[in-house]
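Session log. Operator J.P. requested a structure for one protein chain; no other inputs attached. Running the standard single-chain path with token output.
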Amino acid sequence: MLSIDAVLDRAAHLLGNRFGGTPELTHPEDLGGSSESVVLRVKVTPNPFLQERTVVIKQLPPVDATASDGATAEAAEMAEAAEAAEAAMIREVVAYQYTNTLAEENRPGPLLLAHDIDQRVMVLSDAGDGTSYADILSVDGDEKRRSALRKLGRALGRMQVATADGEEAFNTLNRRQYSRHGLPADRVDERDVDVAALVEQGLGLLRRSGIEVSDTVAEFAAEAGQRQQRSRLRAFTPFDLTPDNIMLTDRVDFLDFEWAGFRDIVSDVACVVAGFPHDTATPLLDDGEIREFIDAWSSEVVAVWPDVRRENELAGALVTSLIGWALMSLSLLYHGTLAVIANAGGAEEGARRLDRMPETHLADLATTIESIRRFSLHAAEENPDDPRYPDVTGFAAGLLEKLAGLGAYPQIR
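Structure written below.
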């Protein structure tokens, strides 16, 4: 792991190369980071070439692709892991490059000021000292929560509308970066998050745990994987929304684009409705908050995607996406990383069950399942002639009972 001084020197060099002059970076403030990443806010001494007075440096951990014998299985695995890590950083850099071209009012996150993929470092504009949605949704009063959720819905909608026609531009940037860094450009799609595989892994885990999965739920699950590629409602999305990576200042900023790409826009809505499935601390939104959030989002996107005003169709898409999120998050919470999921299988597969998971992870799963139960119950009331929703409600209730038997209960305010 690099020292802070080394990270500052590296970032200053990048900024100097990009903007000119010799910027001096001081007063580093640790903003926390996932795994071994270093995220720092630093002051920039007055510089006529750089308007920013503070910047954020994100230094990702190094990747070792070497091994004693290049022909061994271990060497091949390390090389694959190194390529995957480089591809993930390219995706994040490209996401910033693409969104930085948007008008300021539609831009979802900070500006990318400088970067070096080989050295695994990015320098970003500072989003400021706002409040994270983790704090807002956990401790703030009802009206502040509702106001923040309305702003989140509108921000998601504006971003999606602004990027509705941008998929080819995003893919072109990705392919160029792949070629520039010696990666096969035809593997760009392979390096994207495989939603269908994650859903299938989660479904298998439920079945091995003795959970009965009806044909209706299995069909919703299959549709959840397929929607990411064939949905007509596609736009740029951070996808992995977590409340600690969403900041509210005078605007809403999304701070993590590691999983960003063009996908089904309903997935983002379902992620919030489900209480952020990849976050183990956020309590479930109540019915009124969900309605206000969805209304704020749909008011922004309806001009481009009028189908969102068709309640029956939107309810079906949301139930599909909620089931998808439950199964995806179950896979991630159980296995830990996408790399582990990709290699899961073999003799150990039969031992993979819910009762092997930590209680905090089970509680997070229970929160997502409770959101499915509530939403499908509401959909059944609004669509009494559709037999699918009572089936989903029954599945969710049965799974909640199983989780309660393991000591896990939904997180509800």
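Operator note: Strands lie at 25-30, 38-44, 54-59, 112-116, 121-125, 131-132, 234-237, 246-248, 252-254, 261-264.
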